Task: structure prediction
Amino acid sequence: MHGLADAILLIHALIVFFVVAGAVYIWVGARRHWPGVRAPLFRYTHLGIMLFVAAQALVGRLCPLTVWEDRLRGEHPRDGFVAYWVGQLIYYDLPPWVFTAAYVVFAIALIITLVLLPPQRSR
Result:
């Protein structure tokens, strides 16, 4: 089960990377006129993930990926090299309200970005 828990952790880390790096890509790419910045599928998927995360936090629920990983690990910690270091990158020991506030602010920033730099279909 640890292998599956590690796989879920890696997927979780990739999603976090997609959201954070995707925002940077949009903001930098808009200034540099990169074509993929306005791709509707990318933009709506990106925003949708962040809205889901913010909504989950607002109603006091953990991310489903965190719940699944924790259930698969049971009482065992993230003891493997990859599990330990990936866990260090995406899990922090802070009060839940800090994460909720950060997720909501980030989601609002992405909504504003969507309005100011709307997606466009390629020609």
